[in-house]
Amino acid sequence: MALNISSVSTIDELLSSLRRVDISVPPRTDGRTTHHTEIWTICRLLSTLANKKYLSFPASLNHGDRPDFQIHAGRTQVGIEVTEAVTEQYAAYSALAEREFSDVFLEPAHFRWGAPQLNVEEMRGLLRQSQLTSDGWVGDGPEHEWALFIQSVVDAKLIKLAHPEFQKFDQNWLSVYDNLPLPNVHLGKAIAYLRPLLEDRWLQVPSFDVLFVEHGPVIARITANDVTHLELNDLWE
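Structure (tokenized):
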């Protein structure tokens, strides 16, 4: 079911509407769709922005396509494209583990940035192993890889944004749910590596005005000029 919120006049009204939304996301092998991830991401983003007074009122939300959501906030119309940052290989590996190896410890280091593609039998081989075989990460390797992964997400969505059928608004935002297979990423350091990678992306026409990345208990708000870390306002705890 599409998520739509009619005009609300206050922060409390918006938070009340969001609190009633089911944002649960089923396992990959139990009917999960991109729709589930979109609902999860947009609701948590809006509850955080409202709580931090980043939204104007009255406000409304419409669920669509190209972009995924449209917000009317005061006199501003905002288009929001929503996506999950996860490697297809690791997602397939995780789904295979859910189906066939539910008690096995997963090794995300086999799916690092630039790692060779594995077929299903090769992934089964990894899941059958009795000991860890990956090299892991050293130093600030996770932060460097995080930056490269997020850059690739932005690049893919910029191609979509440039399509003639993608509707443009007063503001165009990209919201990313970080589900990358990386350990203990220091978000501030990772964003410091990301920003130089995005310098020319902000100058493209069209481009996104704001990049949001949900990472653990924080949503990072990234623009061409600054970065703000917003504490996640989780209404569904």
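Residues 141-161 form the longest helix (21 residues). The radius of gyration is 19 Å.
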